[in-house]
Amino acid sequence: MAKINKSSLYVINRIKLKRLVNGDSTRKLSEKIDKSEGYVGMCESSAVVHKYNSADYPLIADELGCELSDITPPDDWQVSDSHDKVDKVVVSLSDPAFVLKVLEGIKASPKAEVLEDLDKLYKHLALTTKNPEEITVVKKVWEEFN
Predict the structure, then answer these.
(1) Containing domain of residue 72, as a range?
(2) Minimal CA–CA distance to 6: which of 64, 83, 63?
């Protein structure tokens, strides 16, 4: 597992949450911000040190339809030494708590209609049979959510 600074990990996880709420695949968000098709996927991969360039934060926030403050650490964030690294644990749809945050975000968004049907939700989240654990967790949380 790669190691990055806490602030970068926070941004990666917030962007992933907003991306999923919006229904953007990693490839689609990469294209929206004019990066290579694998850019967002690399940022979200726990296996590599890759992270978002802070110069791109405003563009990413704009494309996600949110404020810069929605994807960056809050003002009261405990600043850490930039040399201190943490494991790059990127949030996942195999985590029920994260799935619940995504569903709550979708419900509060203009995309709320995708919550009416599980297949629409799977499509919105770009879920495929490649990760059956995510499908199982999303289904379970969705059933409890509705």
Answers:
(1) 3-87
(2) 83
How confident is the model over 87-100, as pLDDT tens digits? 999 999 999 999 99
Low-confidence ranges of the chain (pLDDT < 50): none
Q: How far is CA 118 from the centre of its chain?
A: 20
* 8 A C-beta contact, residue 29 and residue 40: yes
Number of compact structural domains in the chain: 2
Whether 49 and 115 share a structural domain: no
**Both 12 and 73 in a single domain?**
yes
State whether 76 and 128 are in the same domain: no
Nearby residues of 63 by Cβ (< 8 Å), 6 or more positions away:
29, 32, 33
Write down the pLDDT at residue 33. Answer: 97
- Do 60 and 100 fall into the same domain? no
Cα-flanking dihedrals φ and ψ of residue 3, to 5°? -125, 135
User: How confident is the model over 26-53, as pLDDT tens digits?
Assistant: 999 999 999 999 999 999 999 999 999 9
d(CA 47, CA 113): 34
Same domain, 65 and 110: no
